[in-house]
Write a structure and sequence with these properties.
Helices cover 7% and strands 14% of the residues. With 182 residues, it is mainly beta.
Length: 182
């Protein structure tokens, strides 16, 4: 990412499908609100100290870790689908997060999200989550707020009373996977 430091007032940056391998030279983009870096070859999150980002997309990269997001306290939407992430981590400080997309990764459990009290949308489909056990504790901070959850194509979605269990955990849920409730 060269020559972008000359645009300190830039608010949206879209550099998807550019074969980028590293996140760099972002430190002068202090007004940046949205950063779209999907379909690149990025292996690690490095926001170069930017704390005001509200939307971040790193879909379809080569990430294996979520670390590097801890200081992004203004973040409202985070898209990390289609990577190789095996553990949910570095999320507890993202208290303004409304949407979290970690679908199509290698997750086996749901954790580090109990403090995300504003979370409305949680996309966990196409992972390796085997059971709904422990989900109620993991989502304790936002279970009343959540309106959409995707868990389809995980083993836990085949468990008996899957929909009923999620409706009980999330009393205001409007959508579970592709099923919308009135």
């Amino acid at each position: 990412m060269e020559e972008i430091e000359h645009f300190p007032l830039l608010q949206i940056l879209e550099l998807g499908s550019n074969r980028l391998r590293v996140m760099e030279n972002l430190q002068n983009l202090t007004s940046l609100q949205e950063l779209w870096l999907g379909r690149n070859r990025i292996r690690a999150i490095n926001l170069c100290g930017l704390k005001c980002i509200k939307k971040l997309s790193l879909q379809s990269n080569r990430l294996t870790s979520m670390t590097g997001l801890e200081e992004c306290v203004a973040l409202e939407e985070l898209y990390l689908s289609h990577n190789g992430i095996a553990k949910m981590e570095g999320l507890s400080t993202l208290v303004n997060l409304r949407l979290l997309d970690v679908s199509a990764n290698k997750l086996t459990e749901i954790n580090d999200i109990h403090k995300l009290e504003r979370l409305e949308d949680l996309w966990l489909n196409d992972n390796q989550i085997t059971s709904l056990e422990g989900i109620e504790e993991a989502v304790a901070g936002f279970r009343e707020k959540l309106t959409t959850i995707y868990l389809e194509r995980n083993l836990c979605a085949k468990s008996p009373n899957y929909i009923a269990t999620l409706k009980q955990i999330f009393p205001n849920v409007e959508q579970i996977d592709s099923e919308v409730f009135a």
